[in-house]
Amino acid sequence: MSVASEKTRVLTGITTTGTPHLGNYVGAIKPAIEASQDPNVQSYFFLADLHALIKCQDPQRVQESRLEIAATWLALGLDTDNAIFYRQSDIPEIPELTWMLSCVCAKGLMNRAHAYKAAVAENEAVGNQDPDKGITMGLFGYPVLMAADILMFNANKVPVGRDQIQHIEMARDIAGRFNHLYKGQFFTLPEATVDEKVEVLGGLDGRKMSKSYNNTIPLFVSEKKLQKLVRKIKTNSLEPGEPKDPATCTLFQIYSAFASAEETATMRDEYAGGIGWGEAKNRVFEYLNEHLREPRNRYQALLEDPGHIEQVLLKGAERARAEAAPLMERLRQAAGLGRFV
C-alpha cells in the first residue's frame, strides 16, 4: 500500500460557471485548502468544468470561470505539492467511468435527485404538458458524473453543503451496486462532511448565496465594490441602541465565517448592546477587506500569468491520471472489457 493510500482522501470541486464568491470560500474552498496543508490528508481538488456544461453553453464564460477559479484557489494558498489539483476535463477516465456507473445505476435513483425533481416541479407549476421540458440528460444524470469524480480516486470524505448530501449518498449506492455486481471491493464508500457553522452562507438578500439568485459577493472584487456590496446586505429596521439577534442576521453570519471565535464573541456582544446597522456593516467590510487584501493581490498577479496556472493544472492532471488509468484498467477487466492478451 502506498503512502498516499494510507492517508484520508478528501475530494472537492467547484463548477466553473461563475466567479468564486464568499459562499464558495467558506463552504468549500477554505476547508479544502486547510486539508491540502495537512500531511495526513491526500487532497483532490478539481475544476468541475464538465459539470459546467450542464448549465452554461457560453464558452467564454466557462473558459473565464475556469481561470478565475484556478487563480482563486492558488491565491488562497492551495498546497499543490501535497494536493492534486486538476481540471476534470483533463482526465478522460472520468467520462469513461461515468458510463460504466450509469450502466449499473437505477433510473429510479436519478428520478429522486433534488435538481431533477425541482426542474420537473417548475415545469408543472407553469402548466407545461411535458414535465421534462428543457431538461437535458446532463441535468438528469449529473449525480452519476459526480459519483465518478468521487469514486475515481476512492475519496473517503467529500466536504459539501447540506443540499449536496444526497449526491454523496447516491455515490455510495452506485459504488455498492458496482462492487456487488462485479464481485470486488473496487470502490470505497465516501462520506459527506458538513461544517454546520458555515454550511450555507447567506447572500445579499438573505437567501442562500448563489449565482442563480444574483446575490453573491465575489471574493476578489475591488475594495470600493466590496464596500458597496456589504452595504447592500439585507438587515431589519431595528434602530441603533436596540438589541439585535445575530442568529437571524446574514451580516453576522458572514462575519463569523471569517472571524475567530473571540472576534465573533465580541461582535455578538455588540449586537446585544444595540450596534447600529451602519456601524456593523462598516466593521464587516473593514474585516473582510483586510482579510482578503493579500490574496486579492496574488489573484490579480495570477490572472496576468495564465501560463503558470496551465502548468500547475497539467502537472496535477498527470498525477491524477497516474491513479485513474490503473483503476480504469482494473475496472475494464472486471466488466469484461479488458484486452485479449
Describe this structure in words.
It contains 14 helices and five strands. It is mainly alpha-helical. The strands form two sheets. The chain has a three-stranded parallel beta sheet with strand order 1-2-3. Helix 5 crosses helix 8 and helix 10 packs antiparallel against helix 13 (277-303). The longest helix is centred in the C-terminal third of the chain and has 30 residues, at 306-335. The model has no long low-confidence stretch (mean pLDDT 93).
Labels describing this entry:
3-stranded parallel sheet, 341 residues, mainly alpha, 14 helices, two-stranded parallel sheet
| N-to-C SSE string, H for helix and E for strand | HEHEHHEHHHHEHEHHHHH
Overall geometry:
globular
* Parts with pLDDT < 50 across at least 5 consecutive residues: none
* Class derived from helix and strand content: mainly alpha
Please give the order of strands in the largest beta sheet: 1-2-3
Describe the secondary-structure layout.
Elements: H1 3-6, E1 8-15, H2 22-36, E2 41-48, H3 49-55, H4 59-75, E3 84-87, H5 93-102, H6 107-111, H7 114-125, H8 137-151, E4 157-159, H9 165-181, E5 191-193, H10 223-231, H11 250-258, H12 261-272, H13 277-303, H14 306-335
Parallel strand pairs: 1-2, 2-3, 4-5
Helix pairs in contact: 3-8, 4-13, 5-8, 5-14, 8-9, 10-13, 11-13
Would you summarize the structure shown here?
With 341 residues, the protein is mostly helical.
